[in-house]
Amino acid sequence: MDVLIENIKSYVPLSLADEEIIRKLFHKKIIEKDEHLLEAGQICRHVTFIEQGLVRYYFFTNGEEQTNYFSKEGDWVCHYPSFIPKTPTTMYIQAVEPTTAWTITYDDLQIFYQEVKYGERFGRLGIEHVFNSIIGQVTSLYTDKPEVRYEKFIKAYFGIAQRIPQYYIASYVGVKPQSLSRIRKRISTQF
Predict the structure, then answer these.
(1) Crossing angle for the helix pair 177-190 and 146-156, nearest 10 degrees?
(2) Signal peptide location in the record (predicted)?
């Protein structure tokens, strides 16, 4: 839980009383490799902080999986279009490797916002970060060539790229695995 508290402190100051509230509201969760935190048709009921591990977000389009995001240690995981209005999602969130996480429900998050002195500020700053990241990804998907998307992937996920199966990376970039191999080969010969 100390990693969770330090992450929150990176956004806002916390008193000892705030830390005690956090310790009561968040619950530890162990997620096995390939286990889903969320599946299409479900309602996202938790915001999750990853202490150790890696997850991916994906959905199906034209019958094929499309990976569109990865979250690693120190990241927050949630599908807000389902979580906030409490409506079923079309998104899947799956552990790529065994993951240790801390979760908070919607109702407990509202208590967090009310009782932690800078809780609402933390929520705003977190959502701003998520929003900027998603807008950047969507823009890249429509404006960048696959090679550029792969280069952006390597920069964004530098420390974890070797932990992600190549077919997930290919899906994220928007190409078939064979095309990703060619892109990787071309990029490696440039350096």
Answers:
(1) 80
(2) none
- Closest among 107, 108, 104, 98 to 73, alpha carbons compared: 98
Burial class of residue 53, CB neighbours in 10 A (0-12, 13-18, 19+)? buried
E strand or H helix at 65, and its extent? strand 64-72
Q: Is the pTM of this model over 0.70?
A: yes
Partners of residue 134 on adjacent β-strands? none
Please give the C-alpha separations between residue 47 and each of 28, 106, 108, in angstroms, as whole numbers: 12, 8, 10
- pLDDT band for 191, please (50, 70, 90 cuts): low
Asked if 174 contacts 146 with a C-beta cutoff of 8 angstroms, the reply is yes
User: Which residue from 100, 72, 65, 97 is spatially nearest to 165, judged by alpha carbons?
Assistant: 97
As a whole number of angstroms, the distance between CA 152 and CA 90 comes to 26
| DSSP assigned state of 44 | P
Which tokens belong to 160? 């974890």
Q: List CB contacts of 166: < 8 A, sequence separation 6 or more.
A: 177, 180, 181
Interval 148-165: pLDDT, tens: 999 999 888 888 889 999
